DNA sequence: TTCCATGATTCTAA
DNA sequence: TTAGAATCATGGAA
């Protein structure tokens, strides 16, 4: 109230804090100046001591003050002072830009389908996420619905809490505004000051809102990692898929790097993604090298299996059917040498093709298909000759990846020479890869 | 419960 | 960009 006392100018008029003379309110021009001073001094004194009085006394005093004829003038002065103060505070608090962290949280919640419009939000986000992670696995639908349900639960909790928060914020703001308006009857409170108070309250509540959003984001992240993390949802490939992959691998043992087309074909046949095919071959190569003894057993098994399958196929179709082994797993295996399935991209011939050819020769000769001699006068013989010329260690795949194993070192890196000797028994190291695109094993 | 197989990921090098 | 290597994490058999 020191300020109030300073409001008196030495000239006897009311001044504001800047020392400007304030307008003379209806104080009665005929009253002596000393008396006016005395009255205002009394009012100020009463205001100063009002807090020392009992509640009843204060109420009575308040009423008296409210009815005092000088009250409006004094109130105006105090309002002006307050306005100046509030302005200075407000000027120091410029409009702040939106909190970037809050914006990030908002964006993420919208992207995840938790915030924003319900229509398709959570479910479509879940669908996209699961579709991306599942790679078309059959059980993805179950996990998708699970994920969707959990996401919907999070969404519901988030919206409930947000509603509570908004309600609490509004209630508290209304309460404070009403309180300030009530108080504005007895003390100068400018509307701008009330606005500022509302802003402060909302800012405080915004911190709570941020926590809510952050917690929700964390929950969504945990949900995603739990449901969509591929490692957690690893499933072994079907037996048939593994068989197909192994057949391809062991038939291309000297150069087990399927081209993109071959990968796509394998992926399609195995019901997995191209990435999974790539992963499988990556793992297979490294694990084959690490445990070559076991791998040899496996390779022998596949070679025998393939030869048997081919023999059965040829036998069932009669000798004239010859090399048409395009159907079935064995067919795929054999077709690697020039059939329809895998040859088109890299023209590589199966490493153990010699075994197969020998087996086929044996079976076909027994079934009267053709003799060893007859082969030399048929297109098959040309193919055979071609293959026999391909004794160069290994070919690179046709797509020419910079990391394709070089012919010189691929044998070493794969120990394929020794392994193929184990398979062939004749040390042929049969690769049969062709640099001539489009050379296909003709049907006999 | 333990151990092994296996699919996926990450990092590094070429 | 791809392959190799190491590693992680899970599934499944013993």
TrEMBL record:
Tell me one GO molecular function of this protein. DNA binding
Q: Where is the composition biased (Polar residues)?
A: 7-27, 386-401
SUPFAM superfamilies membership? Homeodomain-like (SSF46689)
What's a Pfam family this protein contains? Answer: PBC
Q: Which CDD domains match?
A: homeodomain (cd00086)
Main location per the UniProt record: nucleus
Keywords, in A-Z order: DNA-binding, Homeobox, Nucleus, Transcription, Transcription regulation
Which compartments does it reside in? Nucleus
> Where along the chain is composition biased (Low complexity)?
124-136
Matching SMART domains:
HOX
**Its GO CC terms?**
nucleus
Q: Where is this region: Disordered?
A: 1-36, 114-141, 386-444
What domain of life? Eukaryota
- Quote the DNA-binding region ranges, renumbered to this chain: 230-292
Q: Where is the Homeobox domain?
A: 228-291
Per its UniProt record, what InterPro entries does this chain match? HD, Homeobox_CS, Homeodomain-like_sf, KN_HD, PBX_PBC_dom, TALE_homeobox
Q: Where is the PBC domain?
A: 35-229
Concerning its family, UniProt says:
Belongs to the TALE/PBX homeobox family.
Which PANTHER family does the entry mention?
A: HOMEOBOX PROTEIN TRANSCRIPTION FACTORS
- Protein name in UniProt: Pre-B-cell leukemia transcription factor 1-like isoform X11
Instruction: Give the species.
Output: Crassostrea virginica (Eastern oyster)
């Amino acid at each position: 109230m020191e300020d109030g006392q300073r409001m008196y100018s030495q000239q006897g008029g009311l001044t504001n804090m800047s020392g400007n003379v304030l307008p003379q309110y209806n104080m009665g021009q005929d009253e002596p100046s000393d008396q006016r001073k005395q009255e205002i001094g009394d009012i100020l004194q009463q205001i100063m001591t009002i807090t020392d009085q009992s509640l009843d006394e204060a109420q009575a005093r308040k009423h008296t003050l409210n009815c005092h004829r000088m009250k409006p003038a004094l109130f105006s002065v105090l309002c002006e002072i307050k306005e100046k103060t509030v302005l200075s505070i407000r000027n120091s608090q410029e409009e702040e830009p939106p909190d970037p962290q809050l914006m990030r949280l908002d964006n993420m919640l919208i992207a995840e389908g938790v915030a924003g419009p319900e229509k398709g939000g959570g479910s479509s986000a879940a669908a996209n996420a699961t579709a991306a992670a599942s790679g078309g696995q059959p059980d993805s639908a179950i996990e998708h619905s699970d994920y969707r349900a959990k996401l919907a639960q999070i969404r519901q909790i988030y919206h409930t809490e947000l509603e509570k928060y908004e309600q609490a914020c509004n209630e508290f703001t209304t309460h404070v505004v009403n309180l300030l308006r009530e108080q504005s009857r007895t003390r100068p409170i400018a509307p701008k000051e009330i606005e500022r108070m509302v802003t402060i309250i909302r800012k405080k509540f915004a911190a709570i809102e941020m926590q809510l959003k952050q917690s929700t984001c964390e929950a969504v992240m945990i949900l995603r990692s739990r449901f969509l993390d591929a490692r957690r949802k690893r499933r072994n490939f079907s037996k048939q898929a593994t068989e197909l992959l192994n057949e391809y691998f062991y038939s291309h043992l000297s150069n087990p790097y399927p081209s993109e087309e071959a990968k796509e074909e394998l992926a399609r046949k195995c019901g997995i993604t191209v990435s999974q095919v790539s992963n499988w071959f990556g793992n297979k190569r490294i694990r084959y090298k690490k445990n070559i003894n076991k791998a040899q057993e496996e390779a022998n098994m596949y070679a025998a299996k393939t030869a048997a399958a081919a023999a059965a196929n040829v036998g069932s179709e009669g000798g004239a059917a010859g090399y048409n082994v395009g159907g079935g797993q064995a067919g795929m295996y054999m077709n690697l040498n020039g059939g329809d399935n895998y040859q088109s991209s890299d023209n590589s011939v199966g490493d153990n093709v010699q075994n197969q050819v020998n087996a086929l020769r044996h079976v076909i000769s027994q079934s009267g298909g053709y003799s060893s001699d007859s082969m030399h006068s048929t297109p098959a013989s040309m193919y055979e000759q071609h293959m026999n010329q391909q004794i160069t260690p290994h070919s690179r795949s046709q797509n020419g990846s910079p990391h394709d194993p070089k012919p010189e070192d691929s044998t070493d890196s794969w120990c394929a020479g020794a392994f193929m000797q184990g398979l062939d028994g004749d040390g042929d190291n049969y690769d049969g890869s062709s640099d001539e695109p489009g050379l296909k094993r003709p049907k006999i």
